[in-house]
Design brief:
The protein is an alpha+beta fold. The chain has helices at residues 3-8, 29-33, 53-66, 114-121, 138-142, 151-154, 182-188, 223-234, 280-287, 300-307, 328-338, 389-402, 427-440, and strands at residues 20-22, 46-49, 69-72, 86-89, 97-100, 105-109, 126-127, 161-167, 173-177, 197-204, 206-207, 212-219, 241-249, 264-272, 292-297, 316-323, 348-353, 374-381. The chain is built from 13 helices and 18 strands. Bound molecules: flavin-adenine dinucleotide.
Length: 453
Amino acid sequence: MTTEQRSRAPLPFLASLAGRVTTPADAAYDAERAPWNLSIDQRPLAVAHPDGLDDLRAILAAARSAGVTVAVQPSGHGASSALEGSILVRTAAFDRFDIDADARVATIGAGVQWGPVIDALDGTGLVIPSGTSRVVTPAGYLTGGGHSWLSRWAGLGAQSLRAAWILRPDGTHERVDDASDPDTMWALRGAGGLVGIVTQLEVDLLEAPSMVGGVLSFDAADGPAVFRAVRDAAVDAPEGLGAFISSMRMPDAPMLPEHIRGRSFVTLEVLARSESDLELLDGLRAAATPTEERLGPITQAGMAAMSMEPEEPSPGGGSSHALAGLPDAAIDGFFEWRSREEQRPLVGFTLRMLGGVLDEPERPAFATVAGAAWITHSLVPQFPGMPPEPGLAALAGLDALLRPHLAERVVPTFLGPGETLDRCASAPDLARLRAIRDAADPDGVLHEGRLPR
Ligand SMILES: Cc1cc2nc3c(=O)[nH]c(=O)nc-3n(C[C@H](O)[C@H](O)[C@H](O)COP(=O)(O)OP(=O)(O)OC[C@H]3O[C@@H](n4cnc5c(N)ncnc54)[C@H](O)[C@@H]3O)c2cc1C
């Protein structure tokens, strides 16, 4: 930090950090405060880039003495609120990870992204329950629940969290696991950073040496038949199969690749632990003929590349729900609604198959979708020059359409801006979480996150 920057620091203790601090007076502030979804305008008091544990401790102390809060956001895919009156902490300096194949565990720093971890596992026959995006961090994903292609046999990502190193609001830094601190582990498995700042995670590695997967594309007109066929196959699909079906209606936007620009289509992405878990596809091919099929042996890195998740921040909106079931009326209602001209802002609608071991989580966790059948994600990108209102109206319309089919809880990593953990847990679980947070952070030094105080 330059002398000029130090003199501008709003909180005197932050001036002593070894890492960088940016305040609204700095030119870099706008770039550094920005989350991944650029529609969210977060304006923290300062953005701190601690260079290690001592800096993190100093930030907590500075916040405590100034009566402000600390919000941790490694890369901001899950940003939710304005962060006014908070110090925003970026954890990029916690950038180490280690794979111990014998002990089946990865030890991962709080600033590491999934990309390098899954690349390091490529060819080992071991996998880790990452999500679809390479640029999301294990810290944000695992502490928010995390759902992936592997979840029907590996559980939510949070289930793979074996232990964590956590800096508590009082400055204590310690390793916690289910034996030493079951309450903290339960909260870390889904409720995010409400009880402390995680510096390192210990995450299970799983054996999957012969995965098979890929994507099948279908004409948009076959959408109802494909959705029905996948729905029917889900009833007794093997737990080793992960499947996402998407209905896509791409705008005629110049920044899109030619082969999808202005086109509507349906895709089925599948990832199976082994070839035999793919039998579901036989029934599907009888229901509709794929226009394109790319299936074969695949690794986790290959699957992430195939998902083509955007890696650069952009503005946009979305919403997600867990569904208890998917009756014919819901499928037909959706496709009729989607065909209307005013619903064009809804570019993508995805259904991810739940069930399998998700119904019987092994480790105690705040996040669960036990008993739910599907999780949805709706995507309304904000293209340059387009007003946001039609997109918001489309999302509201879709929410109303799905309401009769909702399951009890959604995965916290699927919450949108401003949404709270109320959508993710029962009243007793929320009460337990509040009690754990009150005990861990009695002075409210950590930002309230998705559990308003
Ligand atoms: C393109 C894209 C694809 C996605 N795909 C999936 C998917 O397949 N499955 C899925 O489940 N989710 C998915 N998500 C959602 C994503 O997993 C969550 O938003 C996740 O929380 C974001 O991680 P992040 O690294 O950006 O964390 P941030 O958004 O930076 O942080 C999110 C929260 O995590 C907690 N946190 C992060 N680091 C720490 C720490 N060191 N200590 C304490 N708390 C911490 C805090 O509560 C923080 O508010 C996707 C999001 C995007 C934008």
